[in-house]
Amino acid sequence: MSEPKRSRPRERHRGMVTLRRDAIPPSTADQRLLDSHLRHEWKTKDAWRALRILSEFVEGFDTLADLPPAVSVFGSARSKPDSPEYTMGEQLGGALARAGYAVITGGGPGVMEAANKGVADAGGLSVGLGIELPFEQGLNDWVDIGIDFRYFFARKTMFVKYAQAFVVLPGGFGTLDELFEAVTLVQTRKVTRFPVVLMGVAYWQGLLDWIKGTMLPDGKIGPEDLQLLYLTDDVDAVVAHIREAAEHLDDAKSGGGS
Question: How far is CA 206 from CA 63, 167, 175, 216, 249, in A?
């Protein structure tokens, strides 16, 4: 009689460290850093945390410095393989790879997996930037270069620093966080000529209607801010929009822009 197949043990990646079963702590590094009730740790542990944070930046910079032009793709980890956004993510990843772009995702399941899979099938370079979460996800099988982060802010820096555009597919709170972080950086000119694309017209149209119908009339944004988001369902239009922005930036740098 053959032995019963063992289930894979619970696992959490914390930088270079892999923890399993009872060795997994009840909280994450981000939670311990940000929880205000841990005041007693501010003098004893935060200085050491600063070095750990620095190490995440060094590791990310060193690993990603030689990436070709890349696009960051965001979307829900909960999307199923038979969902429209999963199909869209896979098609998008393939189109970006064929256009010569590496693709950076959060490295998890759902839309992130779809985009990484599309890139891999097209023979491109696929990057996954994972994050330590209470519910461990792990990097999907289609990632070529993977980095596991403890801290969201270090990870977010890599998404922006090494990408020439953001493409945002349907997602939840985390996706909205990444979307509005990108838009804020463009609006405040922390990054220049950085396309932010929304894919999934039916999903995002209500948000854009609210921005245009509520935020704009109330003076919270200006008319020019409405141009910061490009909405489409067309994968080829996404690639063309990103290329056009890159060409415009190249012209401006060379003095050929108006």
Answer: 39, 18, 16, 15, 31
Shortest CA distance to 76 belongs to which of 67, 63, 89?
89
Token pair for 196: 């932010």
User: Beta strand 11-14 with 17-20: parallel, antiparallel or unpaired?
Assistant: antiparallel
Q: How many angstroms separate the CA atoms of 149 and 16, rounded?
A: 9
151-199 pLDDT, tens digit per residue, is 899 999 999 999 999 999 999 999 999 999 999 999 999 988 789 999 9
Q: pLDDT of 47-65, one tens digit each? A: 778 888 899 999 999 999 9
Q: What angle do CA 33, 136, 8 make, to 5 degrees?
A: 140
Residue 74 vs residues 59, 176, 183, 258: alpha-carbon distances, Å: 22, 9, 14, 33
What is the rounded distance in angstroms from the CA atom of residue 191 to the CA atom of residue 185?
6
C-beta neighbour count of 224 within 10 angstroms: 8
Alpha-carbon dihedral of residues 51, 56, 59, 60, nearest 10 degrees? Answer: -150
Local structure of 26: helix, strand or coil: coil
Mean pLDDT by 10 residues, the chain (258 residues): 55 64 68 62 71 92 95 96 97 98 96 97 96 76 93 93 96 96 93 91 98 97 96 97 84 58
Determine the Cα–Cα distance for residues 76 and 85; give it in Å rounded to an integer: 9
CA angle 186, 131, 121 (to 5 degrees): 80
Residue with tokens 């429209």: 84
Nearest to 176 by CA among 154, 155, 198: 198
Residues in the chain: 258
